[in-house]
């Protein structure tokens, strides 16, 4: 899997740079230079502009995440202890996107120029399909530090109750901030539910192209499940 540049990611999510504010501080600093204290706002202004200019672009963070899970299908097969010949019933389904939830401490978030709220964690779930069951590999990782989680599972087609994508919201930051009316971020959540109440899930952004690609895969998965259930009922 591709390497995460934690320094660059921290610069993206925890960047206080601002070109506009930097210019204002520089102007104030220049006006106050004659009484020496102008050096302080001048230095801060230059630093603010530097942070803003060197901040990674949205596309760089997106690509870093995609590169990190580039080989997730082969990794998943290895972790599940199966090979491709066992799961040829349908193409693998991958649901991946920024992670909106708990498990990585207090996460950071940033609203990109494209309006997408990116979080400092990413998740992916891969489904494989054999003749009688679904195999699942879930993987999530932090973009700020070396911290990740992975787990596997499997379920028979007859035990699947539903497969759904729905909109949800998550309060970013501390619980106290959320309770005080902090902005909640809307996102999409994929959930596969079984008869025992077990769920297999992944989250992704509300960005239209993310939703479109994943919904196509999920619809193909639903179609396969309907066919399998009809076969079991005969």
Describe this structure in words.
- With 234 residues, the chain is of the alpha+beta class.
- It has two domains: 18-54, no CATH class; 58-232, no CATH class.
- It has helices at 6-13, 19-31, 39-54, 58-68, 72-80, 175-179, 208-232, and strands at 90-98, 109-111, 117-119, 121-129, 133-142, 148-156, 160-171, 184-194, 199-204.
- Strands 1-4-5-6 form a four-stranded antiparallel β-sheet. It has a three-stranded antiparallel β-sheet with strand order 7-8-9.
- Strand 2 (109-111) and strand 3 (117-119) form a beta hairpin.
- Helix 2 packs antiparallel against helix 3.
- The longest helix has 25 residues, at 208-232.
- Residues 174-181 have low confidence and may be disordered.
Architecture blueprint of SSEs:
Elements: H1 6-13, H2 19-31, H3 39-54, H4 58-68, H5 72-80, E1 90-98, E2 109-111, E3 117-119, E4 121-129, E5 133-142, E6 148-156, E7 160-171, H6 175-179, E8 184-194, E9 199-204, H7 208-232
Antiparallel strand pairs: 1-4, 2-3, 4-5, 5-6, 7-8, 8-9
Helix pairs in contact: 2-3
Report the span from N to C terminus: 44 Å
Structural class: alpha+beta
Query: What pattern of helices and strands is seen along the backbone?
Result: HHHHHEEEEEEEHEEH
Low-confidence stretches: 174-181
What is the radius of gyration? 23 Å
Strand content: 25-35%
Largest sheet: 4 strands, antiparallel
Globally, the shape reads: elongated
- Helix fraction, binned, reads 25-40%
């Amino acid at each position: 899997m591709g390497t995460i540049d934690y320094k660059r990611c921290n610069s993206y999510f925890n960047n206080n740079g601002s070109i506009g504010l930097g210019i204002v501080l520089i102007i104030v600093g220049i006006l106050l230079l004659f009484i020496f204290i102008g050096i302080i706002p001048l230095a801060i202004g230059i630093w603010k502009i530097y942070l803003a200019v060197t901040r990674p672009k949205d596309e760089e963070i997106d690509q870093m995440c995609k590169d990190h899970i580039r080989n997730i299908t082969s990794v998943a097969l290895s972790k599940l202890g199966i090979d491709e010949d066992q799961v040829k019933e349908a193409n693998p389904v991958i649901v991946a996107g920024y992670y909106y939830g708990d498990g990585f401490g207090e996460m950071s978030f940033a609203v990109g120029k494209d309006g997408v709220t990116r979080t400092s964690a990413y998740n992916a779930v891969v489904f494989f399909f054999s003749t009688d069951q679904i195999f699942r590999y879930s993987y999530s990782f932090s973009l700020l530090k070396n911290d990740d989680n992975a787990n596997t599972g499997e379920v028979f087609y007859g035990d699947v109750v539903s497969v759904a994508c729905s909109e949800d919201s998550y309060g970013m930051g501390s619980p106290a901030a959320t309770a005080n009316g902090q902005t909640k971020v809307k996102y999409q959540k994929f959930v596969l539910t079984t008869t025992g109440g077990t769920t297999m899930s992944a989250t992704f952004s509300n960005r239209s192209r993310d939703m479109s690609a994943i919904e196509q895969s999920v619809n193909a998965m639903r179609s396969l499940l309907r066919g399998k259930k009809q076969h079991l009922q005969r």
